Amino acid sequence: MIDALHTLSLDAGALLASGGHGHSAESAAPAANAAAPMLAIVLQIGVGVLVFGILLCLWRMIRGPHLADRVLAGDTMAMLVAGLVIVLAIQMNSAMYYDAALVVSILGFASTVAFAQYIGAKHKHAPDPEPTPGVEGGH
Amino acid sequence: MQTILDTLAIFFLISGLFFMLAGAIGVVRLPDCYHRLHAASKCSTLGLLGLVLAAMLHIGTLAVVTKGSAVILFAFVATPVGSHLLAKAAHRDKAPKWHGTLSDELAEDIAKADTDKQGETRSKKKRKTRAA
Which residue range forms the structural domain that includes residue A97? Predict the structure, then answer.
């Protein structure tokens, strides 16, 4: 009897706590989020999918015939890592990982722009392969 | 309410993961640097959109929604710009094209601009010689 009362009071306390901050999924009552187990399964699958995508991009980065292929594989990998960070943020139910996602996407964009400048500037200062006769380089 | 939000989050999560996987497979499977750039930029942008929307729906605090909006805005501005820069640089570096490529309008435009510039310099030269 006392045990039953104890569990009842514990349940009431849990309900009150879940009412206190309603957005946290763990402390809510099981009837309130029927989609939580499905979400957990999808998150597990999502981590696997994103890691598989990172491995594919790594293969392209190793294999890529041109330098631009490697750079775009790195850009895609940065986006995949940002997605992985966001999936982990959903799993941990925490807001702190968003800064990491933002930083990773900004760094990926900056590195892509820098490598694009490098690839494009490789031929900028080299002389033209067939200089047309009679015309000086006007620019 | 949480059930509805979580169901929507599952939907966006699955769509985002689909786009991410399609982009990664496209980066490996497509035959050409420009094709790969198409797959990478488009699918990374839409995949990140889906994942961030799922996180915003699931957690739903003000800080998360603000940071997620910043991430989405940045991704939708930065990724097309970066891939355009990369495609232009690869074109300037004469990256190998797929054998089935039908037209290269940028090369035609560059050649046309070069001939126009040569014509201008020639006419300027003629004018200079006449003035002299």
Answer: 56-123
